[in-house]
């Protein structure tokens, strides 16, 4: 059966059948015309979707495909960028870690060398030798300063240094610094004006000391005549600690750059060329970490004024005298004379160096790597002070635990924990255990002052 | 009773256990291994579905599972009924991601594009194979939703060059409720999109065994919402179709529809428009979209087994011996084979080619909803590096 209802042979035979056939043909024509005129099927109709999938989808498919490819390429580029970024970050971290590790390892032998040099200074030596020993001591001190700077910057970069904020009287910090730098400035023919303040602030004392010290060192380094100023100004939102000088001043374009690593303003005098140009970079990092803004005012040819704004302590005097690492107590030779000092350190070079140094101060020193060895050597003598290394080797208890153990046997034993670990948490732990903490490289003068304070109070 | 095979990261199993717990347990036992990444299943609509859903969740645990109900299953043994067949994909060779479309009415391109992009992105993250050229989409649709055409066209536009195929879920010829399964339960008026990214070579194919006759029928009245043709050539549709095939209107039934299909001729190809049933008003219901003014061509079958064998040979020539084939086989083909007594011969061909799949209420191929075809994907062996 074809499209038409009637076979051709019947055509013309039956009018009624022809009419019927004509009626159907009209319907077919109408349906076809409607469809042709609607341009296929009405939009949105199911059949239209099918028809379009068959006929038109190719174009859409190609475009979508091009989009997919572009997206794919983009995400690949993205992935590569991420990988490159991660790699660069890893390289930076590993560099920082390497620097920290190297600096740390160098500190140990340097520490020993400093102890030996200090011990040597107390010996009766010919004058020429004394000058040489003095040079050795100063050179070692410079190396120590440089290493300390490197350790600090690497630790700041590695993000392992955390602020340990506590309230303290700003005078505990500034009095000591003023005293120290008055002498340094004197050597350079400069005078230092210090305006003391009795205000209490809240900050990390060690980190803040680092900042002010850097300000002072720079002032001394760059100022050829005139004077330096160390003082404070009370501001609404904190105490501004200021260091001024009458140096050459810093030109406006350089004022930002000097806070970057390895940048220095005009060349310093030959005598003071030691330094890595890291001082203000460290200041910048510490200022960010402590959230203490640093400002710089300068006039060319007249001088510069660096300052740091430190918040006031919430409740002044709460912790007065509790944890003052720069004791202002007067000390003499007497308290150290003949007192029994125990030293526990797993490094024989350090125990030997300590023995020499403490011995030169008149202490009776017992130094060993372990408590049992110490007690065996001590003949039942009661120790007055314990100096213990924090890190006593891989599988041993740490210095704080060892000291706590000894203090149960010798109640009230004054304890100084010595460590190369600059983490604030460790400082806090020793403070909480009622012990004192000194950082490596050990500064003989600092140790002597601390021992004096500890023994005097007895 | 369980039969199964394992080949190139693909393992398939079937169970005829009528109890949902027993069936699910048997499948999990046969299929689960430490590298199992995804399970696709096809089950008879005779199963109590909510119990089966619970049993599947329990048996497969965290393993993602998708599937649908059928009008007959293609198991590792060939044609079957009243069973459940499943195929498990090794995640070392397949990254599989699925999405459920539960609002077929409002599935537009702004919805489809993020859905497809999300599927591709999640596949890409598993980094099994490059996403371009190594992915295809499998669609499982509610076979009675009458929304296949729009959903497929939209999805296909979003898929771009990514090949797609699939089937409409069946319900053992009851034409009442068909279900797709995703996220731990069965859904109606919904679709599941399964994106597969694989290291195995594959080919999406579609074949039918029908050829055109001279007769042309013009749809002169249609109810497009209900997929009904009211009139053909100006005559009530059932009457004209019955006259065409040479029987009475009363005798019209699925075996005749399978034997005498109609097709539209578009872009040089014939696409079968299968008749679902005769209605009391003399109209014909279809399994796919119809429209007033479309021209239908009468078709006649050629030997189905010969066409099937040729298609499988062509696939094997390109991919080598197939690791497995997922097939969507129109239930009218199965009916034709049953009436010709060739079901066992067809089962042998399908078993040899490792076909697993189901009898559908319509197949999907590159965004087109088609009928009376055998459509699917064939996987080749993992290329040796």
From TrEMBL, chain A:
CDD domains: HATPase, HisKA, REC. Keywords: Kinase, Phosphoprotein, Transferase. The keyword rRNA processing does not apply. It is an enzyme of class 2 (transferase). It comes from the Bacteria. The keyword Kinase applies. It holds the Pfam family HisKA. This is histidine kinase.
From TrEMBL, chain B:
The lineage of its organism: Bacteria, Pseudomonadati, Pseudomonadota, Gammaproteobacteria, Oceanospirillales. NCBIfam families: NosP. Pfam families: FIST (PF08495), FIST_C (PF10442). Residues 35-236 form the FIST domain. This is Uncharacterized conserved protein, contains FIST_N domain. Residues 237-367 form the FIST C-domain domain. It comes from the Bacteria.
């Amino acid at each position: 059966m074809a499209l038409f209802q009637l076979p051709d042979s019947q055509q013309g035979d039956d009018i009624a059948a022809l009419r019927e056939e004509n009626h159907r043909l009209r319907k077919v024509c109408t349906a076809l015309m409607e469809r042709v005129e609607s341009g296929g099927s009405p939009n949105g109709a199911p059949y239209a979707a099918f028809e379009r999938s068959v006929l038109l989808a190719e174009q859409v498919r190609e475009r979508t495909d091009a989009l997919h490819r572009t997206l794919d390429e983009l995400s690949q580029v993205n992935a590569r960028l991420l990988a490159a970024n991660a790699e660069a970050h890893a390289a930076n971290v590993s560099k920082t870690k390497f620097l920290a590790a190297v600096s740390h390892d160098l500190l140990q032998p340097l520490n020993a060398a400093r102890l030996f040099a200090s011990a040597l200074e107390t010996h009766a030596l010919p004058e020429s030798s004394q000058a040489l020993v003095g040079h050795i001591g100063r050179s070692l001190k410079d190396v120590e300063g440089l290493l300390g700077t490197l350790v600090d910057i690497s630790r700041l970069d590695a993000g392992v240094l955390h602020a340990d904020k506590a309230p303290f009287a700003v005078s505990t910090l500034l009095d000591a610094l003023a005293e120290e730098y008055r002498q340094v400035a004197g050597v350079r023919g400069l005078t230092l004006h210090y305006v003391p303040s009795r205000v209490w602030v809240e900050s990390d004392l060690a980190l803040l000391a680092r900042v002010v010290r850097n300000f002072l060192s720079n002032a001394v380094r760059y100022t050829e005549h005139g004077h330096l100023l160390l003082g404070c100004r009370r501001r609404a939102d904190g105490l501004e600690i200021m260091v001024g000088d009458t140096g050459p001043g810093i030109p406006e374009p350089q004022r930002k750059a000097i806070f970057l690593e390895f940048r220095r303003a005009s060349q310093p005098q030959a005598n003071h060329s030691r330094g890595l140009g890291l001082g203000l970079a460290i200041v910048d990092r510490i200022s960010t970490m402590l959230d203490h803004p640093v400002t710089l005012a300068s006039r060319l040819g007249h001088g510069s004024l660096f300052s740091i704004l430190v918040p006031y302590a919430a409740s002044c005097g709460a912790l007065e005298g509790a944890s003052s690492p720069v004791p202002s107590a007067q000390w003499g030779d007497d308290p150290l004379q003949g007192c029994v000092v125990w030293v526990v350190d797993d490094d024989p070079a350090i125990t030997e160096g300590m023995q020499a140094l403490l011995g030169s101060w008149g202490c009776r020193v017992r130094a060993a790597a372990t408590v049992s060895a110490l007690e065996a050597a001590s003949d039942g003598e009661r120790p007055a002070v314990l100096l213990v290394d924090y890190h006593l080797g891989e599988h041993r208890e740490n210095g704080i635990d060892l000291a706590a153990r000894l203090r149960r046997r010798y109640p009230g034993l004054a304890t100084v924990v010595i460590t190369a670990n600059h983490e604030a948490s460790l400082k806090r732990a020793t403070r909480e255990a009622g012990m004192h903490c000194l950082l490596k490289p050990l500064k003989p003068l600092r140790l002597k002052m601390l021992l004096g304070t500890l023994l005097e109070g007895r | 009773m369980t039969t199964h095979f394992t080949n190139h990261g693909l393992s398939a199993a079937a169970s005829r256990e009528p109890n949902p717990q027993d069936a699910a347990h048997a499948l999990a036992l046969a299929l689960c291994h430490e590298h199992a990444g995804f399970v696709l299943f096809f089950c008879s609509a005779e199963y109590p579905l909510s119990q089966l859903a619970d049993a599947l969740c329990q048996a497969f645990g965290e393993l993602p599972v998708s599937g649908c109900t059928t009008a007959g299953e293609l198991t590792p043994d060939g044609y079957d009924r009243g069973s459940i067949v499943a195929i498990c994909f090794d995640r070392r060779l397949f990254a599989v991601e699925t999405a459920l479309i539960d609002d077929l009415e409002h599935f537009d391109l702004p919805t489809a594009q993020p859905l497809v992009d999300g599927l591709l992105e999640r596949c890409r993250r598993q980094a099994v194979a490059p996403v371009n050229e190594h992915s295809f989409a499998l669609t499982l649709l509610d076979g009675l939703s009458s929304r296949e055409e729009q959903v497929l066209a939209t999805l296909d536009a979003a898929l771009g060059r990514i090949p797609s195929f699939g089937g409409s879920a069946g319900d053992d010829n009851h034409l009442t409720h068909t279900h797709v399964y995703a996220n731990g339960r069965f859904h109606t008026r919904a679709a599941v999109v399964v994106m597969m990214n694989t290291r195995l070579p594959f080919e999406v194919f579609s074949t039918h065994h029908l050829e055109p006759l001279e007769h042309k029928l013009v749809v002169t009245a249609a109810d497009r919402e209900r997929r009904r043709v009211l009139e053909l050539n100006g005559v009530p549709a059932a009457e004209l179709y019955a006259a065409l095939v040479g029987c009475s209107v009363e005798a019209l039934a699925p075996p005749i529809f399978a034997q005498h299909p109609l097709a539209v001729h578009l872009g040089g190809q014939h696409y079968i428009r299968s008749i679902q049933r005769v209605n009391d008003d003399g109209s014909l219901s279809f399994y796919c979209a119809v429209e007033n003014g479309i021209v239908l061509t009468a078709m006649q079958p050629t030997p189905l087994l010969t066409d099937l064998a040729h298609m499988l040979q062509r696939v094997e020539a390109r991919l080598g011996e197939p690791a497995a084939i997922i097939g969507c086989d129109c239930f009218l083909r199965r009916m034709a084979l049953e009436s010709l007594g060739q079901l066992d011969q067809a089962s042998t061909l399908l078993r040899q080619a490792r076909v697993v799949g189901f009898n559908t209420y319509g197949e999907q191929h590159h965004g087109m909803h088609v009928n009376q075809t055998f459509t699917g994907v064939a996987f080749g062996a993992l290329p040796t590096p």
